[in-house]
Amino acid sequence: MELSNRTLNRTLLARQHLLERSRLTVHEMCDHLVGLQAQDSPPPFVALWSRITDFDPATVSDALVDRSLVRITLMRGTIHLVTPPDALRIAPHIQPELEKIPFRKGFNYGAMVGLDPYEVRGHGERVLGDEPMSAAELREHAAAIYPDRNPGMVVQTWLYQLPVLQTPPRGKWKDSSRPIWSRVEPWLGAPLDPAYPLAELLLRYLRAFGPASTMDMQTWSKLLGMKQAIEQLGDRVRTYTDERGRTLYDAADAELADPDLPAPVRLLGWYDNAVLSHQDRTRIVPQGGAPHLRAFAAAVAPVLVDGYLTGLYKIFPEAGVARLRISPTRKWTKAERAAVEAESQALLGFMEADKEPRVEILEVGADLRP
Question: pTM to 2 decimals?
Fold first, then answer.
């Protein structure tokens, strides 16, 4: 069966809870989406506000404190907000790939070339024991152990080599404190679970992002062995083709969305996984070209109109005023423009409730910088 691009679009939006806001709890949403992209502190809050009815940001802050949610390096080597079970069972899949990164010649101009990875790891395990430690403290130890190396690069290597997570207060609502790092197992009081099958992880990906190709799965996870893992699922998956004849896999019991369903305007957080978790992004990004990650690094984020990325926005908080500037990537109708403005006003009311909201919709392709 061939699936149209619009069917893939509406199915993705439905599974991402972007067609209508959900009554799932924060923890249930994190579980369903296999974590929320949390490379910076604000995006998971925007992601949850866009997906959950009456979302209260204190829920996330409280969960980080009571350790029922954690911020940990997982898919694509980026920070995700996940439940403890996912931290313990996904990290063993990701960790072997992370550990290779620092000893490649291209890593920070070869900063670690010539050192024994096992010896470096051993030092890291001794330095970062069972108690959380700031990056500054880690650098002091790194400088003492490797006086001829850049201590920041040594610390970065340890953070790749060891399963670690960021502890609060970083990640709490309105808190962008510098990271304090802890090893995963002492923080959660439980061992890693290396027995969790990759096939089960991919089935969960399909329930949140499918139907999808094996290359989409690899783009999302940065793991290998997609085809073999999918084959292990047997009749728990079914296959489709897209408009270009590529094979797409899906959970056998998952439903496809009606391509004629209306899609409301949604403003996502920068780095949102709905945009970044497929190799072929044409199901949500026209022509498939998502903004470069450098744009996301500047807190530039997607605007979805009729289900597709057709604009970028950024919030500029100032004294007493919060401006949300939007640069459309195509001309919007009068109705679309009004819907974008209404959702933007609502987001400012959530993100900057104590400031006067101002929404500025610029010309198509205009620079967001004031």
Answer: 0.94
Query: Closest by alpha carbon to 59, among 207, 172, 199, 200?
Result: 172
pLDDT digits (tens, 9 = 90+) for 139-157: 999 999 999 989 999 999 9
Convert the pLDDT of each residue in 309-358 to its tens digit. Answer: 999 999 999 889 999 999 999 999 999 999 999 999 999 999 999 999 99
The two three-digit tokens of residue 151, written as one number: 């201590």
What is d(CA 117, CA 129) in angstroms, rounded to the nearest whole number?
18
Residue 301 class from Cβ within 10 Å (0-12 exposed, 13-18 middle, 19+ buried)? buried
Answer for the pair 359, 348: CB distance below 8 angstroms, yes or no. Answer: yes
Cβ neighbors of 178 (< 8 A, separation 6 or more) are 134, 135, 136, 170
Element (H, E) at 324: strand 321-328
- CA contacts within 13 A on the Cβ side of 37: 22
Question: Phi first, then psi: what are they for 281, rounded to 5°?
Answer: -95, 10
Q: Which two tokens stand for residue 82?
A: 């996940």
How many residues in the chain?
A: 370
For residues 201-221, one letter each, b for 16 or more C-beta atoms within 10 angstroms of the residue's C-beta and e for the rest, the string is bbbbbbbbbbbbbbebbebbb
Distance CA 370, CA 324 (A): 11
- 110 backbone φψ class: left, alpha, beta (φ>0; ψ -120 to 50): left
CA 342/CA 323 separation, integer angstroms: 14
Q: How far is CA 160 from the centre of its chain?
A: 18
Cα angle value 265/270/273 (rounded, 5°): 80
Phi, psi of 164 (to 5 degrees): -130, 165
Residue among 216, 44, 299 nearest 291 (CA): 299
Residues 6 or more apart whose CB falls under 8 angstroms from that of 222 comprise 75, 76, 77, 94, 97
The CA distance from 43 to 39, in Å, is: 8
